[in-house]
């Protein structure tokens, strides 16, 4: 009676095929993970920018306090979470613009979320953003470019 099993050639061919498939799948997995982080970055930027715009609209409408010489933009990102006093309410109610500050998915996970973003004040030019007395915009501090070729700082 003859023993059944695989020959050495069959095993080597099978291992080679599996290794080839794994080498093709590894870069695809990396791209999928990176695309997921880029989608998180887009969402986080949208939420923060939307909250900054809502703060500005509330300040311009007179719903929250605004100094005469102020731009109407929030002084920090934390203000968007901590809220500001609603001047229309006698009970001292607060207006909140964000539940929490999203973290830059490409940023350092050991830093607080508000420190993972670059801040641009209203007085700084768009091609050379700098922090200042207010927060007009945020940008990613991550080095490198996205899958679309645009640097993360310019998103």
Automatic annotation (TrEMBL):
Residues covered by region (Disordered): 107-126
Protein name: Prepilin-type N-terminal cleavage/methylation domain-containing protein
Organism phylogeny: Bacteria, Pseudomonadati, Pseudomonadota, Betaproteobacteria, Rhodocyclales
Keyword Transport listed: no
Keyword Chaperone attributed: no
Family annotation (PROSITE patterns): PROKAR_NTER_METHYL
InterPro entries xrefs: Bac_GSPG_pilin, N_methyl_site, Pilin-like
SUPFAM superfamilies on file: Pili subunits (SSF54523)
UniProt keywords, alphabetically: Methylation
């Amino acid at each position: 009676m003859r023993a059944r099993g695989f020959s050495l050639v069959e095993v080597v061919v099978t291992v080679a095929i599996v290794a080839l498939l794994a080498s093709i799948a590894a870069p695809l997995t990396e791209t999928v993970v990176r695309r997921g982080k880029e989608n998180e970055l887009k969402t986080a930027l949208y939420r923060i920018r939307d909250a900054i715009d809502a703060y500005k609209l509330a300040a311009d409408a007179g719903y929250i306090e605004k100094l005469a010489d102020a731009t109407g933009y929030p002084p920090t990102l934390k203000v968007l979470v901590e809220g500001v006093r609603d001047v229309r309410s006698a009970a001292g109610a607060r207006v909140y613009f964000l539940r929490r500050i999203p973290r830059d998915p490409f940023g350092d996970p050991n830093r607080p979320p508000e420190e993972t973003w670059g801040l641009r004040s209203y007085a700084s030019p768009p091609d050379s953003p700098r922090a200042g007395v207010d927060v007009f915009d945020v940008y990613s501090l991550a080095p490198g470019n996205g899958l679309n070729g645009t640097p993360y700082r310019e998103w």
